[in-house]
Structures are given as C-alpha cells and as structure tokens.
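Notes, p. 3: input format for complexes.
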Amino acid sequence: MKYCKKCVIPDTRPGIAIGSDGICSACKGHEEKKRDIDWNKRRKDFEEIVKEAKKLGKSYDCIIPVSGGKDSTWQVVKCLEYDLHVLAVTWKTPLRSKVGQENLNNLISLGVDHIDYTINPEVEKRFIYKALTRVGDPGLPMHMAIYAIPLRVAAAFDVPLVVWGESPHMEYGGTAEDRKLNQLNHDWLKRHQILQGTSITDWIDGDLPKKDMIAFHLPDEQIFQERQISSIFLGYYFPWDVEESLRVSLAHGFQVREEGPKVGYYNYVDIDCDIIAIHHYFKWLKFGFTRLFDNLSIEIRNDRMTRAEAIDIIARMKEQTPYGDISKLCSFVGIQESHFWEIAERFRNPAVWSLKNGKWIIPGFIVPDWEW
Ligand SMILES: [Zn+2]
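Output follows (372 residues plus zinc ion):
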C-alpha cells in the first residue's frame, strides 16, 4: 500500500492514482482548482445555464437533489440567489437522523417546494441485503436512488436543470479527463465507481422485480436529449470547500451534530442518514482506510492541517466502527448482527490485510504503532 506524499490517501482508494512524483490525483485536482481554473469564466457559464433554464422551465426551473446536509443547503441558497424556481427532491432514507430531519425542514423553509420520495421499505430491505452480501456495500441502493430519483422527477415534471453539489471527480480524485466532466448522466455514472461497476439491470431478478425497482432506474439516455435536461455539478462552477459551504449553510439555519462527528472528522458531514457510516466502514476492510482519511486529506489540501497532524488524529480516533448504526441497519433489514459481521469479514481484502499472530494487520500502515 502506497500513500500520497502530500495527504494521507492510499493508492487502494478507488479512482485514485498516485503519480511518479508521489502525489495523488485528488491533490493534483485541488492544485488545478486553485491554479488553472478560471472561476470568473465558470461563474459566467453558470449564469448562461440559469438563463437557459428560466427560458425552458415550464413549471420549475431546476431540481436540487437534497439530503438535508450542509451542501444541500449551500445548493439551495445559491440557486435562490440566482432567482431559480426550485423543486428540491430527496430520497427518503429509512434511517434518517433527527438532525437530518431538522436540517431538511430548515432547507424547505428557505423557500422551495420539496418531494420526500419514499421507496417501499420491503424492497429497500431486500436490495440492501443483496448489496451487502454481493458487493459489501449496504449504501449501494442508496446511491442508486440518490442519483436516479431527482433525474426521474426532472423528466416527469419536465424540468430542464438538475443542480448537484460538489463534483466527486474534482474533489476526491479522478483522471484529468474525469475532472472536466460537468454532467451527471449515464456516462458519468459508468465512470464513477460508487455503483461498483453495476447498473440497475444487474440487480433485477425474481426477488427484486423490475416494476418494484423504478425509483432506482435512471431515465433513458434519449430523454436527457429530448427534454434538454442539463444535470450539472455546482462545484464545477463555484469553488467547493467544506468550510465555505458550512459557513453559508450555518448562516441559513443549518445545524451541526452536537455530539461530534458521526464518522470521519467533521460534525457537519454524513450526519443525516444512519446508513452512510456503514458504507464508509467497508472501506476499512476493502481498502485499508476510513472516512477520516478522506476528511483529513481535504484539511491538508486546504493548508488547515499538516500531514503529521492528520496522522496523529487517525492514531487517536482509530477506525470508528459504527456499531450503533450497524445495529440499526440490522434491525431494519431483519438480520442478526452476528450475520452482518460474518458477511463483512468476507470483504476483508487479503491484498491489504495480513494475519499476524492471530490478528489482522495492515502491513506498512500509515500509523506505525497502531494497536491491531
Ligand atoms: Zn494526495
């Protein structure tokens, strides 16, 4: 396992490449953001998109996919500033947290219509269980729904613009070509590894028949063209930074998680749904890093922390196994926790982990004196 020289991301992270200079593609993307991107020009491009959406919009001008998080609030604030008529759309997580609901209520009160799209829990349970056992990610159905529902609603309501938050390729690593993509569509999703190279058709069977899985289906490709639907990342047009979107959302009523971070380093990210921490947890077994590594690397890239400080924090905060959330997920899906752990263990990656004196260890781990 090789780590980036600048941040703490290992080369096992999907989509990350560490160059011959020892620097990862996410760090390079960050430098590019500061150095090469003409943000003034991109803001003007956004203004053109807004004009076009207002011209084409018959009901709403744009859809904003929202969870109730700080980025959702930032997206809504930004679009309202540009006087767009907004329909906010949420995939309703079956495990929504209290602060998540409160933040969502606050976001709606900023002045948008909202759809809280609920999927039949029986279907969701079966799909989550299948994703957990087949690819070691109970968050896969969630991500499929998060991408598909807003685009389906855009097609159904004839809304010409969908405004997503940050561009994952620009912020978390992607090739130079990927970082230039600013349309979340079929092609983009194929490149992005969050769906583990699968699409909805790979999951349909007797247990999960097609008619029960409509909410997870992206609209057909030609609908994007016919309806002139543009599906853009706001972070492509305005420099995205966690601190800046937090500042904006706090000024508009967003609440952080008072008890501290749920997973990772921030008490204002990944706080609205109790499935997300488990999605992140599997990175530990599969790739030997955790959500902390992602968050702290952002802090390093923004010069708010040194690499040595980040490593100390990892040593102190450990792997953050989300036992409470795992317990909630097991009771939602209807399985014993022991069965969950049995399944999880199947995804411990032997290319990352080794057995030493009866204990699993990661050879060459970034914290040298880690207690395994
Ligand atoms: Zn890096």
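The pocket of zinc ion is lined by residues 4, 6-7, 9, 23-24, 26-27, 297 (CB under 6 Å).
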